[in-house]
Fold this protein.
Amino acid sequence: MNLPAITAPPAGAPPRPVLWKRVLDSRFMPPVFITLILLAGNLSFGILESYQKTLLAIVTAIVAEMALGRIFLGKWPHPSSAYITGISVGILLRSPAFWPFALCAALSITSKYAVRLRGRHLFNPSNFGICALLFLASESVAGLSIQWGNNFAALIVIWILGSLILWRAKRFQITATYVVSFFLLALLRAHITGDPWQSEVAPITGPMYQLFMFFMITDPKTTLKSRKGQCAVAVAVAVVEFLMRLDQSVYAPLYALFVVGPPALLIEMWIDARRKRRLAPVPQLRPEMAQ
Amino acid sequence: MKRGPVAHIVLWVFFLGMLAMPAIMRRLSSQRRTAQAGELSCQSALARYGFCFQEVSQQAGIHFVHEAPVLDPKLAGIMPEVASMGASVSIVDYNRDGWPDIYVTNSRTGSMNHLYRNNHDGTFTDVAPEMGIADVNKPGTGVSMGAVWGDYDNDGYEDLFLIKWGKPMLFHNDHGQGFTDVTAQAGLPAWINANTATWLDYDDDGKLDLFVGGYYPEDVNLWHLKNTRMMPDSFEYADNGGRKYLFHNLGNGHFEEVSEKAGIKSRRWALACAAADLEGTGYPDLFVANDYGVSELYLNDHGHFHEAGQETGVGFAPKSGMNAAFGDIFDQGKYSIYVSNISEEGVLIQGNNLWVPQDGKTLHYDNLARDLGVELGGWSFGAQFGDLNNDGNLDLFLENGYISASKTRSYWYDFSKVAGGNSSIISDASHWPAFDGRSLSGYQQKKVWINDGAGKFIDVAQAVGVTDRYDGRAIALADLWNTGALDAVVANQGGPLLIYKNVVAPENDWIEFLLEGTKSNRSAIGAQVTLYWDGKEQVQAVMGASGFASENARRLHFGLGKNPEIEKAVIRWPSGIVQRLENLTPNQLVRVKEPS
């Protein structure tokens, strides 16, 4: 996960709004939201195995971001993005050991600097880190696979708050498209497998999906620029997830984003490059060559 | 990116190094915690580890195969899951002949429970029918889930409480000649869906009381369901399970239910419980391992309990508790607690818990399962501490394996799909995909972890002859043939009862204690013996249940190592009397009667 598209107002913008609006519009909003989810979930239902592991992931992510940003970009990056990566690792990863939390957070941040093209990182950082550990260290880690609490209240609050934030960030269409696609494909899957439709819908009512939908697939750094493109990628993620679920992949949504995200970015870069070339002014021929 | 190619090469080396890290950790971990020998001959295992097991059930004349319950047809699709318990084993000397006997439960309606009388010659004979405790799974009364033995009327003979999904039953032992069903006089409820119970004298009045932990709610009849909304409403926070009962022994064959009055009020899904004086107050504390949630620790304030799971550290992280066993693993006079949970590679890594008490005035535990190497045991069920090689350190024997069906198709995907859903989905059995012959953590290797005495446990199961892959549930330890070695009896769900006869290297010595209360309850449940030898101090308690659906032999077994010098044994009886025994010699059974 990375920082959703709520950024500081550009220079030369209209007069600065009042403090509370600045706070709401600032890049701190997503970290505050995800922290509230974490605290509410843990204080009410004890969703974390320990605060220490989550703290380890957060600290590792921030330290890695600071060091790599300084070395490779020549500046101190804002820590909010790394904070979200760390806290996401702390929530989504499950392991009795400490080392996977540190390793996953470090891998996530390092992937931003190692796997880049034309100044953009290709993988959603925490998606990369978590997928890597689920794949490479399956004997030591698992993903978050349980629900929070026993009723819909927590779920509805998170959905409303998450939707509002995404709406303000102009990214609600991504989550909405994904949710609609998921439900339709879940019904199709139930038809194909013969399983109760409730069992196919069940995953989206769990916390892993809440984080996945609101934070991971909406990451501005690894999603496309156009709204149509964003929606198309959301549908593609849902379709790949659908196929993986038919193959009984437990972490299908995470793997689907891992598979779909980078190619979508590459295609967008390729299209952008072509468009730029087409729009670039044709160099004038020298008179002697024109003859 | 401002840096040049060298920096990028360094970055990629760092990146690839991190990707390789899990493989390195895996290699290091497996080298450290598993014996590399594989299967060994008994002689080789004796030479290397000081003991080996030989499975002798057939030679012993025991051909018991457990039959699983068959419940309401509305549960047909997920029958393997909901009918996945019922195999249990408890050790009792029901006729006071000095030789441990074995009681095992069966769980199909109409099936028979068995009481295997020890013939003193290596064989056993099922005497349950003539003793009147075989035909206890009659239609309309539910089926057996476990059994615990305790002399509730202090007549010297162990009585039987039958744990059921159905009508709980209490049988009075008529001086080893037969059993009388005294359920009606005892005043027990008409129906409890329980998997765990323990005898304990919670108020130290000299009479054994009984704790029963409900699993499914008591208004659910699993053979005649009103609806299919009987599953847990959460996989980590469920509180829609069965209620808990504390039956206070009134001394006239009647029991009074006092759980709420005594401070026990919970609807978590209890699967295992054990009681011993963990806090050193002289009163037994009660540990309850709950499925689908946190464990509970009820500390006993002179006959009144308060739940202290969170304040002691054992009740914070919710898991799938299925076992409660106490053992002084560091020989320091304190009990650690082992709770089994679920670990399945790539899907769910809960890890088992080994709660080790911290030093200090207040009771607080740290989970050291990972550090000590007893964390990962698959879909774990029953476990017991016992000194299997008589080296003076308590070892750990763990049963595991949930549902072994197809060897190629797994239910894990569907399980994880639904288990992560909202309560309104998961609590209804009709929402669960059908098993269709698939396995769920089946065919698992058992764990026999030997304690090296220096803070590490090493799995030697395959090397010492524990090679079965049945769906293990309960394990009980007993010196079945009075040889000074702890044998293991294993009850498998839908599988055979296994008798692992223990052959121990003769150079290690041992001592056993058999206690009999006078002022305290006659079973001496709650009494604890602290043995001091060679600078070591190990405490063990007489317990009314231990592990999952099991009860060990009443006598306490201490391994002593080579040429031990025993300093003394200190017995603290539930009555408060403290008794010192000196001039003890090894390799004997010491019978002790509580001084009046």
Observations:
- Chain A has two domains: 48-143, 151-275.
- Residues 2-11 of chain A have pLDDT under 50 and may be disordered.
- The CA atoms of residues 20 and 151 of chain A lie 32 Å apart.
- Chain A touches chain B through 60 residues (CB under 8 Å).
